[in-house]
Amino acid sequence: MRHAILMLLLSVGPALASSEAEWEQFRKDVETACSALAPQEGETMIEVNPFGSESYGAALLITAFEDGAADRYVCIYDKQEKTAELTAAFTPPQEVTMPEADPVGNVAPAEDTRTDAHLVKP
Fold it and tell me: What mean pLDDT do residues 75-83 have?
């Protein structure tokens, strides 16, 4: 029983080892590295995931343009190497139109401009 408790405490240790000051510094590091990769045109907003995963930090970047368009990116920050990479912009969601049948009943193929976003099922 003591062995099981000791193993449990040791396995939880790394998650509890970082202080709030260290997490705050981590978030600043991610924001600095990811902001440096943001596109120059437009106005970019960033949201840093507070803790990331075991090996990586992550941030969402959204760049808004004067014409009302916006690009969305994911920034991945390597905790060990302290380097960041930015994904290509996601395809922006578009309005989806329903195909209509002609008077004879034929349905012409419609261009579907939806993204691949979908619900995650466990």
Answer: 98
